[in-house]
Amino acid sequence: MLQDPVVNPLFQFAPILIIGVIFYLLIFMPMRKRQKKIEAMIAAIKNGDKVITSSGIYGVIAGVKEKTFILKIADQVKIEITKNAVAGLQGPEETR
Question: Residue 57: is it exposed, middle or buried by C-beta count within 10 angstroms (0-12/13-18/19+)?
Fold first, then answer.
């Protein structure tokens, strides 16, 4: 009878390991870079900056607290939002 060839276990798991490495490089690394960029942008926000929230509200930062911002959205109207609610800074074309 013919004997089955002995296969190194490393070769059996090599495709799974390669797929895992590719998945990490294509998904997790860009996501991590994007998250660091967002965190740096939020940390740099100061009073007077014009921002857009994730819900689409435009406003000016009127105060900075440890975990929140005070956002002035109209004359005599201020709301408190979490820092994570800021989607980005207003660009020159978005300024009203």
Answer: middle
